[in-house]
Amino acid sequence: MLKKRFIQGVFALSYLKFPLKTLGLSLFVTIALNASAASNSNSSELKQNLSIGLTPQKSLQETFDGWYHSDGTASIISEPNYQSLNFVLSGESQDDSRTLVLIAKDYITQNANKFGLNQKSISELTVTSIRQNSDFSVVRLEQKVNGLSVYGSSIAITINKESKITFVASNTITGIDFDKKMTSNNKSKITKEQAIAIASSYLGFKEIKFNKAELVFYKEQSGNQFETWKVRISPNGGKASDWELLIDSSTGKILRAEDKLRRIEGKGMVYKPDPVTATHHVYGDKGFVDNTDSPTSSNTSQIPKDSPVLTATRSSVTLKDIKLVDGKYILESKYAKCDDTEQPKDNACPAEVKAEFNYTRTNKYFDAVTAFYAIDTFMRYVNETLNVKVMPYQYKTGVNYDPHGLNGEDNSHYSESSGKMAMGQGGVDDSEDSMVVVHELGHGIHDWITHGNAGNTDADGIGEGTGDYLASAYVRDLPENTWKPTDPQYNWVMRWDGHNPFWPGRVSNWNIGRKYPSDVVNTGDSHKSGQYWSSCNLVARDKIGGVAMDKAFLNGLSKTIETTNQVGAAQAIINAAKDMKYTKDQINAIAYAYNTACTYNVKVPVTE
Ligand SMILES: [Zn+2]
Fold first, then answer.
1. Where are the domains of the chain?
2. Check whether domain 266-597 has CATH 2.40.30.260, yes or no
3. FRET partner for 368 with CA separation of 20 to 30 A, picked from 89, 108, 303, 477?
4. Ligand 1 center to residue 518 CA distance, Å?
């Protein structure tokens, strides 16, 4: 519904043929309301819908001297082999900046056909920058029409010390009709402020962080020429974006819209989710042991060593939207942030010149990458796939984690006061097992979704069970998970860090043969009790599917308070399923898990 309304708003704006001046502000207000209603959805689908006039990149043709566009104009000339006969560089940078331009223009004039430019276009070429490097210089030019920059035009010419052109990168706009009138009526031209308002309304921005607008000449692929406002605009709050729009300066129609935010994609080698799950092994199989000097000791200070097996079992993954800070790539995205906050302060968060984080386990940075991937992937799943919005309330960044914390102990934790999580290194490094990482993240999600009211009493273990449920959910959905529901290992929780000589680990079919509350409550170990909670919910998950159950699970938890026990939370979840309009079959499947496979005896909501 919203989307439909939104499109109508855009339509009205895009085809505005009458002078805006006479309409006053009311038009903008109306459209802004429509647009901002739609902007509540941040789906990538909507973002796709907001793009206008983008054309796919066309393939280039290789020739003897470079690569050319299909219309015959140059894209890259790697061997220009051009020595200017008319102009020679002196070596004096002041004089040379002038000479460089003369050489560049001389070259373009002599090779006008390679650029598809006529005499008029060449005479209007304007230098935008000159960069004088120690060994060569780069002159950049753009096309102009009546003093306006031609949108998309750019030529970069590299000239060496011997006044020779050694490289050219070019994108020229050909076939410009200089005599054709661009705007129907200059008197009705929209103002810069109106152009920014049109852009802002269209994108549904409530508040603008940055804006800039200038008039440019735009030639569509169809050949139509326009004088347009090139508007750059980014929102204050909400999903980060950096839009560029071209708006017809006489009609206000949006001709082109593109989000130009550069998202950095890194690459990394990680355990996905751990060395054994992906290889159908268990801890202790040949080669699948924590390879340290003394492998049976859980000594905290031992450095894991490489082995061919443990190196080969890593997976190559994409690290989405990571940051570039001071020329170095770091493990920080919208959802996860590596930060060495706890002892040992071993500087375990990498900063790399290239966006590549390829380490083996003996490298101290390896754990940071595996943990980052698990946290970022799972937070993305919760916030984007499930559309359950959960972020830390204690700080403004993504989930803050220390890949080596707890002074090295064989344990990990999430701290409610700081909202940060950390993994220890005793026994197997905890960061090497994504189920440990997602379990700790699960404590965070539980805390954030209840705004500081996560229950985790020792008596009931619902908090521990929530971590185990989410960790199992993460691993069961991975294509790398080789275990089938019929394998005992399918129900193992923490298969690399646990189920080994250091620690027995936990299971997710602990409900079998047990009754709530007699076998579950007051066991003296919240982790043990929590297994009932994770197991019962995973029965439901296997029945109705991951996305449906995870959504109901998290939305249900969001309704609980600190003292809510397993039964109370189960009731909240099955009621959430009804609120979310789940089918009778889905609700009955959850009821089967809670009341038949387990003994919570929740009230089953009646569906129409
Ligand atoms: Zn825990």
1. 2-55+180-259, 72-171, 266-597
2. no
3. 477
4. 22
